Structure formats: structure tokens, C-alpha cells
Amino acid sequence: MTIATARLDLREMSEADMPALAAILTDPVAMVAYEGAFSAGEVEEWLHRQRERYARDGFGLWAVVLRASGEMIGQCGITLQRIDDDEVTEVGYLFQRAHWHRGYALEAAAACRDWAFGALPLDDLYAKVRSTNVASMNVAIRLGMTVRRTFTTHYRGVDMPHLAFAVSRAAWERRAPERTA
Ligand SMILES: CC(C)(COP(=O)(O)OP(=O)(O)OC[C@H]1O[C@@H](n2cnc3c(N)ncnc32)[C@H](O)[C@@H]1OP(=O)(O)O)[C@@H](O)C(=O)NCCC(=O)NCCS
Q: Best mutation site among 93, 151, 153 for ligand 1, i.e. most ligand atoms within 8 A of its Cβ?
């Protein structure tokens, strides 16, 4: 599974990506919305969860590689998530801090959105965003999403108010000229 955008290539992550993955997941600033930096063990678990998703679902969070340098600068992809009692399909995005604010998250996430509506029988694509995560909300809005509801998760011992952003297939089709593929 690979997706190409103007500047980026998305592909499955492997053990070789552990250092680049750790650069994101052990950064306390990047991980504020996840209640702090991950330990080395939590990074390993995260990678194994994505590899289980590739095998079971055919998708997961993929490595985002800067084509010009070959460097993995982030993760972006599609996962199955729960919101209250519902299972939803979500686009997720986490990037190394050194590469923020250059449009990479939006470029990768828009390509994943277009891949998801093209490849999967979805009515809606979601983004679960913690209520404090303004950067993520703005990416969701730029993906054509609106807020559907609020909900609370319990993660790492903390109650976390969240917003459920989503874009419908009908709205995505109306935005066709802006699509990446
Ligand atoms: C969320 C995240 C992926 C955004 O990455 P990014 O590469 O900076 O985003 P982009 O450059 O593609 O920006 C796209 C839009 O997002 C918005 N945005 C990005 N960072 C922002 C910030 N700190 N504050 C407000 N808006 C922000 C802007 O509206 C931007 O549009 P613009 O180019 O017109 O300004 C990045 O901040 C990140 O990795 N955060 C940590 C992990 C995380 O919380 N992921 C989301 C979990 S739900």
C-alpha cells in the first residue's frame, strides 16, 4: 500500500522506522494531546498495533516520507476507532515537530481522506480531536470536516473531552475540485 502526493510518499511502517517513530511519540510537545511522551515500550506497542491493522484491516497509520530526502517525517493514515458505542473510520496525523507548519499534515491527510472514500464503502470519515488540540482541529476543518458531536475518552488515567469531526461522502464529492487524486 503506497500513496503519493506532490511532496510525500505514504507507506507501511516497519521496525526500521522505530527511530523516526520514537522522534514523534517520545516528544512531550508533540504528545501533549496524548497526555505526554511515550516510553520506548509504548512506541514498540504502537508500531505493532499499526502492523496488526495493516494485516487485519488493510490500512492503519502509515509512514509519511519526504520524497526529496527519503526521511520519515510523520505518520498519517486510516484506522477504525470507537466513539461512544459507534465504530467509525478515522484519519489520523502526527508529525515530527521539526516539520510542522509546512502543510505536510494537510497534504498527507487529504490524500488519506481521498484514498479512504475511494477504497472503502464509507458514508463518513471522522477525526477524533481532543478539545485542547487547536492545530488538529484546524487540519480537520481544512479537510472539509465539521463537528458532529462531543464525547469523552478515558486514556492514560485521564478523562479527555473530545470533538468528533467528520466529512460525509456527499460533502467530499461536492468538493471534488479540491481533491488530491
Ligand atoms: C496536528 C499536526 C499534525 C499539524 O501539523 P502541521 O504539519 O503543522 O499542519 P499543516 O502545516 O499541514 O497545517 C495545516 C493547517 O493546520 C492548521 N494548524 C497547524 N498547526 C497549527 C497550530 N499550532 N495552531 C493553529 N492551527 C494550526 C493551520 O490552519 C494550517 O493551515 P494554514 O497552512 O493555512 O496555516 C501537528 O501539530 C502534530 O503533529 N501535532 C501532534 C500530534 C497530534 O496532536 N496529532 C493530532 C491528533 S488528533
A: 93
Q: Which residues of 110-128 are buried (b: 16+ CB within 10 A; e: fewer)?
A: bbbbbbbbeeeebebbbbb
Distance CA 128, CA 163 (A): 6
Ligand 1 touching residue 175 (CB < 6 A)? no
Q: Using one digit for the tens of pLDDT, what is the confidence trace for 64-104?
A: 999 999 999 999 999 999 999 999 999 999 999 999 999 99
Range of the domain at 140: 2-178
Q: How many Å is the Cα radius of gyration of the chain? A: 15
Ligand 1 atom nearest to CA at 106: 12
Number of domains into which the chain is organized: 1
Query: From the CB of 142, is ligand 1 less than 6 Å away?
Result: yes
The CATH number of residue 103's host domain is 3.40.630.30
| Residue 177 binned pLDDT confidence (cut-offs 50, 70, 90) | low
